[in-house]
Amino acid sequence: MARRWVKGAGLTGVGMMSGAAGLLTVAHAAARRWQRAPDSVAPEELRMPVDVVEHVIVVSDGARIRVVEAGAGRPAPTSRPPRPPRPPIVLLHGITLSAAIWPYQLRELADAGHRVFAFDLRGHGRSTNGRGATGSAPSKLTLERLAADVEEVLAALDLRDVVVVGHSMGGMVALLMMERDPALAAGEGRIAALALVATTASPARGRGLPALKELVAVGRPIFASGAGLASRLPGPTLPAVDLAFVLARITFGDLPSARQVLFTGEMTSGVPVRVSAELLLEILRFDGEGVLSSIRIPTTVVVGDHDVITPLAHARALSAGISGSELLILRGCGHMVMLERPEDLDEAIQRLSRRSLGNAVA
After folding, report:
1. Which pTM value belongs to this model?
2. When you count CB atoms within 10 A of the terminal residue's CB, does the N or C end of the chain come out lower?
3. Domains of the chain with bracketed CATH
């Protein structure tokens, strides 16, 4: 009996290894095929503006939060008449991304006269994690901690009348900020307007994803155990770049730029597995629907109708829950709105900033 069990386990292990090897082979072939295809996106489009200013803010638990700023002190072109002040814009990225995911917005919104701030959220990009209460272990990565980081950075930089743009997990962080401080939701704090991009108030509600709520409820102990094990592993989230490319492709909509997909996959592959494991569990637990009805600041909800991560039904629920919000649906677009449809997103953000000023022609 023992011998048969060992033999069976061995065969199972071989099968799993063969399956993994096959997956990597397919990923490699697919990545190479996509990367050889003609690409309309030039490499320089995905680079940050050369004149960005870097801020490093040390928050209350010792973490160092990196923020890049575009448009600081940039004069208006002499050929144009003087422009009225534009509100500052704060960009919050999704899980396994970084400030680098916003190259188009850092350029275009700064050119339009905004000061634009893009965060590396804790554990991502060049931002570090801090120390917990005992000082002997890293702080637990939670959405609460990320929200507190953003609040502390806004205060440290003394940013007011801000338009916050939250993509995916970044949108959840923004909603959590509203829940933590009702004054923000009422328009009495530092935030004047809110853009929720390819995000959700409750990933586990199951809208568009059949029985996800039940799956999360039943499987949460398994998720927690898996996240706990993964959080102790060294190394990046996806060490195989080709696999990262294939998984990144899933997040895009119709006919994406291979260069943009590779750019996204490389960013994801560099995030420590501990960060993605702990925050994925946080995302699955998140439920911000209760705060939606209290949001009184101008709000825009943006979604691609080909988004398989936070489908259209989630965006509709957000918009229905926030009185007076605008819902923008981008046809053929997936989850990576800032890369796939930068002009549409930038226009929506500028329209929202005008609403925040109460001036439709600013």
Report:
1. 0.83
2. N
3. 50-72+86-209+287-357 (3.40.50.1820)
